[in-house]
Design goal:
Elements: H1 21-43, H2 53-58, H3 65-86, H4 98-108, H5 111-123, E1 129-135, E2 142-148, E3 159-165, H6 172-175, H7 179-186, H8 192-202
Antiparallel strand pairs: 1-2, 1-3
Length: 203
């Protein structure tokens, strides 16, 4: 069954002023759509068509070598963005609560330290990539991981919980080369209930 571009839970204008509507529309309808199309083309006619994106990425080493690069890039791009949209909401931000907050406190000392470390990891990505809060399934612990291009943390046995997209297409129309300003604004949009649900499912 072919993967489909997901519909967003909010309008393209809903994340203003932090992420502008034109960026949102281009990012979703062109970039995410292209990853989706190219993923489907790469796996067409293979057994991968029957697998979930999570299983495909977690088993990237067993993907046939002739399509592995395309599946890694486009499959990661597809899944990363599915998580990205869900983890944002209008009037988001603030801090998490419950088990996720406890795990962050245990790993980083407090929320402010976590926010600073994830921001630095994202801003520090050379070229294009993502800054992630991740967990190892069943561990109940969290850590930060920077990933290049569209490579998913799932390819390293990690479950992505919250990711900030630092490809230029995610922010350049509004922020130009000021990546730190974009990352700072992104924190105002986090849907912590969604992130917490992902963490609970991975425990």
């Amino acid at each position: 069954m072919a993967f489909e571009l997901p519909k967003l839970d909010y309008a393209y204008t809903a994340l203003e002023p932090h992420i502008d509507s034109i960026t949102m529309e281009i990012h979703h309808t062109r970039h995410h759509n292209t990853y989706t199309t190219n993923l489907n083309n790469a796996i067409k006619g293979t057994d991968l068509e029957k697998k979930s994106i999570e299983d495909i990425l977690a088993g990237i080493a067993s993907v046939p070598e002739n399509i592995r690069g395309a599946v890694n890039f486009n499959g990661g791009g597809y899944d990363n963005h599915c998580i990205f949209w869900k983890s944002l909401k209008p009037q988001g931000g603030g801090e998490p609560s419950g088990p996720l907050a406890d795990a962050i406190k245990k790993a980083f000392g407090d929320f402010a330290k976590f926010k600073d470390e994830l921001s630095k990891a994202a801003v520090g990505v050379q070229g294009s990539g993502w800054g992630w809060l991740v967990t190892k399934k069943g561990s109940g612990t969290v850590s930060i991981k920077a990933m290049p291009n569209q490579t998913s943390p799932r390819t390293e046995g990690l479950t992505p919980l919250l990711g900030v997209d630092v490809w230029e297409h995610a922010y350049y129309l509004k922020y130009q080369n000021k990546r730190p300003d974009y990352v700072a604004a992104w924190w105002n949009l986090i849907n912590w209930a969604d992130v917490a649900a992902r963490f609970a499912a991975a425990k």
